Amino acid sequence: MDDRRRLERAVSAGTTATARDVTAATHTYATLDVPVAGGRLRVGVWDPVGPHAPEPAARPGGARPAPGAVPTVLAVHGITASHRAWPAVVAALPGVRVVAPDLRGRGRSNALPGPYGMGAHADDLAAVLDALGIESVVALGHSMGAFVSVVLAHRHPGRVARLVLVDGGVPLPPPTGLAPDATHDEVLRALLGPAVERLARTFADREEYRAFWRAHPAFASAWDEPWGDVVAGYVDYDLVGEAPALRPASSAAAVSADSLELYEGGPLAEALTGEHPLDVPLVLLRAPRGLLDEPEALYSPEHLAAWRERLPGLRTRDVAGINHYTIIMSPPGVEAVAGETLRALDAVTSGAPGPASDEEVTA
How far apart are CA 103 and CA 112, in angstroms? Predict the structure, then answer.
């Protein structure tokens, strides 16, 4: 049996979603392990329910896929997250197949060795598409996952038809308030704060870890209905090891190495402004609040305006009332992310260019 058939069987026989999973009515859920350099990459796959999973009646633009086709989205998580960050968005994409990896050094891919970096992650994602026999996708990336998606589109031409970037994907401005000679660790802590600090901690049980996240200012409202179970599932999945010394799954070495490539330079700069930049339509959804729900966002409007001048194909949109995390785990954020993803899928299907200006998609 070849690798692809083994992987298809793994998808059909893999771990299924629990009854409390918000995707249960729209998708089946399974996991599989894809061979990549150095080992195997864990991948979550949400397949739409029903034969060929017909789309819902109304879609932005009114386009539909070809008979029998199942539109596919590759969803790529953030720097200390996992594929379990995506169920709320998946539930808002009925009729769409969502393939979401645990990136190298995270989740159940945390034992994979380096080298890390956007190029290594992009190559891993290309291996996932190859293993599943997927030629081209709409790539949906959150935070660091948006950077990885940009590099994937550039490094593996033809594999990404459209890019939906969620609070990430263009170079970050340097953190404010740091000395010019700040060390990498100082920059990392200024950028990610508690997200980095928790990687060095242990937790006695799941409840203690849930309490940590309930106290996190960015997640205070995310535990409310309708998607409190999404956050609980995301948090529970993040723990590895044995009680009373459970620990977050993300590798500190991977996080540190990858954070070096979130600014100008490296594969990202090559993809966006190099000699042969990528030629893929991209939209960036901006969270107006930051990683701690503070009013200072990851990207200022002025920073993105400057990048729109450098990248004529870039469209941006603010999503009011959300922060860097709740943009994929709260009703207004999920509605915006799913809406842009559906627009991208419809544009691929119809061959339409999609909205031509920021104003057409700005909430």
Answer: 9
The pLDDT value recorded for residue 196 is 75
Identity of the amino acid at 262 = L
Neighbour count for residue 225 (Cβ, 10 Å): 7
- Angle, CA 173 vertex, CA 318 and CA 200 arms, to 5°: 100
**Nearest-CA neighbor of 18 among 205, 330, 233?**
233
Q: Rounded to whole angstroms, how far apart are CA atoms 121 and 119?
A: 5
The reported pLDDT for the residue numbered 312 is 86
Q: In whole angstroms, give the CA distance from residue 243 to residue 205.
A: 6
Residue from 276, 272, 210 nearest 237 by CA: 210
Give the tokens for residue 256: 């540190």
Interval 201-216: pLDDT, tens: 999 999 999 999 999 9
Strand-pair category, 72-76 with 97-101? parallel
How far apart, in whole angstroms, are the C-alpha atoms of residue 277 and residue 151?
10
The continuous run of DSSP H or E covering 75 comes out as strand 72-76
Between the alpha carbon of residue 150 and those of residues 127, 138, 231, 288, the distances in Å are 16, 11, 27, 22
Q: Can you give the pTM of this predicted structure?
A: 0.87
Question: What does the block give as tokens for 15?
Answer: 């771990």
